Amino acid sequence: MDKKLNLKLMLWRQNGAKDKGKFETYKVKDIDVSMSFLEMLDVLNETLTREGQEPVAFDHDCREGICGACGAVVNGKAHGKLKGTTLCQLHMRHFENNETIVIEPWRAKGFPVIKDLVVDRSSFDRIIAAGGYISAKTGSAPDANAIPVAKESVEQSMDAAACIGCGACVAACPNAAAMLFVGAKISHLVLLPQGKVESKTRTGNMVHQMDKEGFGNCSNEYECEAACPKSISVSNIALMNREFMFSKNPPKP
Amino acid sequence: MLKTIHHFQTSIGRKQVVATTGLMLILFIIGHLIGNLLIFGGPELYNGYAAFLVKLRPGLFVIEGALGVVFLIHIFFTYMLIHDNVRARPKNYKIVATKSERSFATQIMPFTGTIIFAFLFYHLWDFTFTPHHGAQSILRDGKDYGLYGLVYNAFSDPLHSTFYIIAMMCLGFHLSHGVESFFQTYGVTNTKHTATIRMISQTFGVLVGWSFSMIPVYILVKNLSGN
Lengths: 253, 227
Ligand code: FES
Known about the structure:
The structure holds 2 protein chains of 2 kinds.
Chain A: E1 4-13, E2 22-32, H1 37-50, E3 73-74, E4 77-78, E5 100-104, E6 113-115, E7 118-119, H2 122-131, H3 151-161, H4 168-172, H5 179-190, H6 199-212, H7 223-227, H8 235-245
Parallel strand pairs in A: 1-5
Antiparallel strand pairs in A: 1-2, 3-4, 3-5, 6-7
Helix pairs in contact in A: 2-6, 3-5, 5-6, 5-8
Chain B: H1 2-7, H2 11-37, H3 43-56, H4 59-88, H5 104-107, H6 109-128, H7 146-155, H8 158-185, H9 194-224
Helix pairs in contact in B: 2-4, 2-8, 2-9, 3-7, 6-8, 8-9
The site of FE2/S2 (inorganic) cluster (FES) has 12 residues of chain A, from loops.
């Protein structure tokens, strides 16, 4: 029952954005199979700290698959080999004893490495700021159900809203494109009456910001959908493409 | 005007250019294929069709020139997209693995595209700009069969045929991802239709690849069996 794993980790270490970075090999022993991947890294970090070495930096917050903070490319796959799972929800029972695990940060120009496995995803925030919002009256709360919404729109919008902004789509895309993320954010708002106010400019503004952040261009390989911990559909990219045709481009700076 | 230029400097704008030019090339390929298949109707029908096309010149030159430009735009915008894509990931992963059912055709798009580009020149030199009468058009019975004879003799050479078949397989692969991509880029795809569109795209690619290849295969087999 109590299976324990001994593992070899090939981990990307990089001290800041300027550092070139390199792989370092570590051994971890007696890893409980019911541990999560992040807990396994905790074990490694405890050992490193005890030995007076610098622990590995990695992002995490909720550790229950809902916040979007965690993420690394494990053996070439974003969030590891399981589908619809974040790294914090990937358990060690999916690994073999004596396995070598290669762990890398998200690699994209739009996601510069801050340290080790931690990348700067503020580019996503800037894309949201460019158009991922609605205008709402604050103060008195509107009556619930005052605005009728078609069931189908609600469902599509809610599916898109499941995006936790982890960045796995960019990490998994062969072109480091952010189109699934941006597509999801656009679908989320544009399908609802509340999102209609800005719908003329939203897509143009967000796509321009996405390009400015240095993300690549989608070549319809759908690697993003497969890597997405929330399994968000690439049909959101199609919707974004459609919206973009009718959207105003922002004035050139 | 400036606004339009601005539009085509964006990622999606460029993708739309590639999709639109791709669609035009697909229409051309369908037309070309139908013309080619006339070869099964015998030398008279086939040469008649070729003569008909020649008669349409010089008007046809305009269309052919426009197609050439479309082809170059398709390549140029693809090049720009790839150029950005390479820059979007300055450092590559040590291990690249896939989690999706990403098709083989998708992964080799730039490769099949390059082969088709090279093939076009060879093909023009081979059939369009070679005289359609003379030694190369004479079949076994000693008569000059014009373009029909030229094509027949060319494909009687197994090496020559093989090369064409490989190029047409590349075209098939290219289209099997291309058609699907067109629908995605123009936002037609949604969760309900994705599977159908993918099936149409792959069927179309296979169909085009095989239909073009049928001609050299037919001639080769006919030749080997001695008639
Ligand atoms: S830590 Fe919140 S999703 Fe993994």
